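Incident log entry.

Two folding requests arrived from the same account within the same minute. Monitoring flagged them as a possible duplicate submission, but the sequences differ. Recording both here for audit purposes.

Request one:
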Amino acid sequence: MEVLEENEEEERREEELMKALEISDELHDIETKLSVDQVCGPSDVSDFDWSSIDISQLPSSYKTNSPREKKLLRIADHYLQQYTHLCPDRKPLFLYPVNECGVKKFVSTTVRPTLLPYTELYHWDGCASFVCDYLTMEPLKSPLTPPSSLYSPTTILKYQRGNCFDFSVLLCSMLIGAGYDAYCVNGYATQDICSLDETLEVCPLLRKPQEVPKEITKKPNKYRVKSSLDLQSKFELQQEAKKKAETEATHKNKERGEEKVMEMEKPTRDPLYGLRVHAWVLVLSGKREVPEPFFINPFTGNSHSTMDEHFLGIESVWNHKNYWVNMQDCWNGCKDLIFDLGDTVRWEIMLSETDKPLQMLLDAEEENELFDRNMDDIEDEEEEEKDTSFAMPPTWVAPIQISPREFETRCSQGKKVIMYKKAKLEKWAPYLNKNGLVKRLTVYADLRFHIYKSMEPETERVMEFYNESRVDGLQKRAENATEIKEYFVGRDDFKYFQHTEFSKRGKKISVAGTRTDINSRPIVQMKECFHRNLEKPADEDVAERVFLITEEMIQLTYHLKDKYITASKKEFFKPTENYRKQSEIMTPEMCITYQAGSSVKDKLLHLYKLLQELTEEEKQLKQQVRQSEAEVLNILKIRENEEADVKLTVSIYDTKRNEKRKQQYEAMKNAMEDEFPVHEEQDLDYLAPFLIQIGYPEKMTKGQALRLRDDCLTDFKNRLIAKANIIQARFEKEVEELKKKNQQFQENQSQLSREEEAAFLTDYSETMFRIHILALRLNREKQTAPQKYLALEEKLRKDPRLAVYLSYD
């Protein structure tokens, strides 16, 4: 029986092995197809030959490995062997790809923490926005495996392009430099994330902020009022219910239509779901007041929750100090992962933590010192750390630098286009367009048909005005081919709205020397609406006045009187031309009136005068409509001229573009040079004070040259010592004052009020800040003083006036 069971187990293993081989073959076929067809990347990404880049000017650290880097590679190789042995089912780790010079470099040493001198880059969203705008995305050669190379951030910035790993390393370097606890992530994501496909995403400029419902808390009242009788009309309730049902039905139909559109827009099934390799950035909580961990997609610069379903798994994370491997199961994506890197059960660390922190690069001088450190210093450090745990070597990457012009230009060639769902966002560098355009958002009505609004007359547009600065109180004018709507505020006649409808015009006849508005749009109807004038009775105060031009009618509707549900109305029928010639008598058939609450009819004479007034008002209103049309044409003409002749204002601090300011500066500089040519030379001559002592000899002896050198060096040394003594004295003074204040606080602590205690703590904090700054300045002065002394000595040795005598010394 045992033999049979063993045979059955062997058969099962063989079957599972065959299935695994078949699956791997299928994945290999899909991978080759994708790499050939390049479906994993956008079609507009042009091919770039990375083998043609110039590496001759790169530093030596790019082309060789230091002893500590070689030791790190041996440790990483041993770590990879152990990992492969313990986890044979997982993919190989991304540890030491080659750089642009073909040299293997550990991924952590490729991260270069850098704080750039731009305010926008002090925050994570500014860094992410800059990286995604500045670089051009390149897809991975194989969507199933990490790249075989990882170039330095300096090379990526130079050529402004890279894959997701290049994006992540650059962004992580900037975030760590800005003080964030950031890490590069090697994992898996969905196809739209890996291929930078945002056509199904809503544009960030169109997203509506989420409304937070306010909780209304009712205070309990011990007194209760008896409920009043229900006096509401049942008919009105039925009408409201009917309207509500119609609204719900319309809303449901709209939702069904949207669901159908959503189904049509759903992406097709991805055969490589869960297998596509992607790199992004993880920011942990703790530093820079980050409340909880979150992801940053370097392609878009958007932040995502660690529960986001677009991120499907993590293999490893790293920063400039260490490398961690995820040992948690990613069957549910990243939703169940715990990002506590100190937990050795969930995260396997490569290098054991050391108590000695890695020195942060504070300024350019220290960066260059660390970067140009010679091999002897490195070997000495290795001998000191033989008995301790191995620490990560310093980065091999040169300092990351971005010029103000590059930071301002941002996008590659100054322009970037992003396609969103039913929208297109275009970005330009400042001053690239002559009209000053830097951003344009085009919103499409649907996925097929587009509506464009132009500056042509008689097209759809809305104009808004400052009603306080206009005599007619016009606030807004909405126009299209068939109507004009005008809204008014603060008029004496209480008019607040005017609506004019037009019909199609006939064939336009252009005659030389005639007016351009001879073929204006025929007016069909003019309607005016008025607010209530309390100085008039309601049945004499017009609420709405309509002039039906084609029907030769005038309709008047008055305001409602109190406790009335119907308004008074009058309808006038204008007489024809033949009738006007024959007689001017008003007949009852020419006017239909309704007087709310009264059966008394108006006299014909009164109605006749009212008709004459309305006829005159109609003529004036027609003239106003034509004036409005002319005003629109005039505004469009002005706007067209402004767009054709745009003059951008340049800041006086922008010396590269401000030609006027540049010319003034050069003229002032030339005038200063012409006025003070000798003094300038004397100011630049650092040996002038010492040459005066020996009388400016035409030829110096060797003794005079040696004395001149010694005096100059001695004076410079005394100045350095005096400066250090001043800083030391200030430091000791602040420390002594702090001790006195602390002693007084300890003695009188029980008698101090809260305000006095808060004032002491504020003063204490400021004093500690001054002490810290003085300590830094004193330490820096002690470090740089020998270098400055040696630099002056070398400068004296090369000075043409002393070089002849000092070369033999």
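Request two (distinct sequence, not a duplicate):
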Amino acid sequence: MDQKGYRRGSFQSSTSDEDMLEIAGASLDFSMADDDPPLDREMGGFTSYNGGGMNGASKMMDFLEEPLPGVGTYEDFNTIDWVREKSRDRDRHREITSRSKESTWALIHSVSDAFSGWLLMLFIGLLAGSLAGLIDISAHWMTDLKEGVCLAGFWFNHEHCCWKSNTTFTDRDKCPEWMSWSQLIIGHGEGAFAYILNYFMYVIWALLFSLLAVLLVKGFAPYACGSGIPEIKTILSGFIIRGYLGKWTLIIKTITLVLAVSSGLSLGKEGPLVHVACCCGNILCHLFTKYRKNEAKRREVLSAAAAAGVSVAFGAPIGGVLFSLEEVSYYFPLKTLWRSFFAALVAAFTLRSINPFGNSRLVLFYVEFHMPWHLLELVPFILLGIFGGLWGAFFIRSNIAWCRRRKTTKLGKYPVLEVFVVTAITAILAFPNEYTRMSTSELISELFNDCGILDSSKLCEYVNDFNSTKGDDLPDRAAGPGVYTAMWQLALALIMKVFITIFTFGMKVPSGLFIPSMAVGAIAGRLLGVAMEQLAFYHHDWIIFSGWCSQGADCITPGLYAMVGAAACLGGVTRMTVSLVVIMFELTGGLEYIVPLMAAAMTSKWVADAIGREGIYDAHIRLNGYPFLEAKEEFSHKTLAMDVMRPRRNDPPLTVITQDSMTVEDIETIINETTYSGYPVVVSRESQRLVGFVLRRDLIISIENARKKQDGIVSTSIIYFTDHSPPLPPSSPSMLKLRSILDLSPFTVTDQTPMEIVVDIFRKLGLRQCLVTHNGKLLGIITKKDVLKHIAQLANQDPDSILFN
């Protein structure tokens, strides 16, 4: 209960601040380096906040008829009280329902209140889809800008520039309207000097974009860096991080996401799009009172916004809903499921209307396969799953080790220099290899592609025998020199992507992990697919091929192997299963490939879980010390509540407030000398019989208001929390009644309650703290931070790592 910071006169209501960010479920002590540290850290009760006051004609008065601004709200880096928030929403709903029978206007208000949730989902879907389209179009143009410019209009990317050109299909990328930087500067694009000039311009543009991104993040919105999903998970569990979902974060993240993706760094835009969509949801909540003033209701909206973010990132509305349910949401009632589905639908429809890629698809790497797969191919698919699990576990350990080094050494003090160096290395290594020079989305698109007759890619340079061609289906053919060149270039690209992504994820620029992980898996899958294809072509009489792959038949689809590999690696890193498979088949439009995808996703999860239980987002939550109580983990230890509660044996006694015998000065002294978020209220210090729980913040606000608004409140005034005032001499000063801010039903457990049950209570009810009693007498308190520290200690981890850094 050692919270930081109390400052007189600094208590402002934060309910109207759209920059407020919350994270659920915990009362914790966080070490802060702020100049203005949060007030309440660890505890909070749930109360019906209808004002506090003094009553009586001369001695006591009700100075609060309306709720005070700030009473019942939360400070930054604090945990919401789920029980109280849901209770307040039920009270509000009952009041609206009862009033709706009184007049037509009240009935209209009731209907509008019920409809407001759907209207909010519509706005979120429209805004998220529009921003995703803007990001896609801008990133596509700026990525091509590194290689050249369109003479017909500098705002056209390479593909759009050549649409109206009269060039042949095979030369469609070499239209006269598009000029490389060497053609523009020295008049020709051939030769060593032209290559060096193009190389130089590529690196310069990459450095310019990445430096601009990191400077904008550092200067205007530090929360705009990273993917945002670990923080979104923590916020959805009930915690508050003010500014993380605010307007400045939204603006800067949208701009810098385009810059970071365009710079060619090994990162993606899919994770940050979830953050962008949640910012949209948080800001739009302020249009509706029931979401603006209730933190639990706001989190329902943020869950739906996360679904909309994945919907526009992958063009997968159903996958988005499942992603929100499986990966990020802490509390996901059925009503939120329907609204998430609607928000994801609207977002996908909006993005489809914008058509950012000009192919009537929502993503650049949409692909369709038509060839069936054979049962024996499950063996290489499972091998890809094993590779994905090994890569996921390796990546998580390496990236967390690097990020920890960044936090604990001088490296973390130079984010701009770090971005500069990583971008320079990436650009210098990427340019010579055409598969790393192109954007990662284009690379995945090429790897997923099933070679057709008109494909001019090196991956499709097979030795053609057109006599055996039947319709559009090409038989398995011998690989030509272009395929072999592509294979070793892809092998080099795989090595580069594996290692450079470790250092890129976690830098101070927006950085998603979905696309780099899928690229690693897609490269590995394509390599394996081509190897299987050539094996089947040259050895079709082997027993493993003889039953289903005759000579001249189209047996193996290398693009399918790339898709399965992409799913395996993404699953190994994030540990997603159901939502991952649905996202992948929504990407490909092929239901017949669900079994290979499921086999690879489950294998990668099993392999990765055998090496380390945490996915990348959970690992970053733990690294950053966020107060997140994982609902999926089992607590199997036999400890009791008395082993975890505070005060411990050698600690000073628990700080309590008596119900009717302490003065204003006594309570102000307690507030000044302690940093706790709240205080148990007891009948007397001798009896220690529990009456309720009062929040520090509410005490401060109520006392300050009483001093300002009511004459006669002095330091010697008695504060009481009972229904009736205690008997006092006539000459005593006015008394202050604060029963209305007292939580009369705090959660309590006995000292012999197993911690297994206590942890379950904290998880399922989202408690901030729980009081411990013995035979009805107050013994101590357990906060969410105590629970997290206890779990860390039992896992042989440093309990002091549970701090918000």
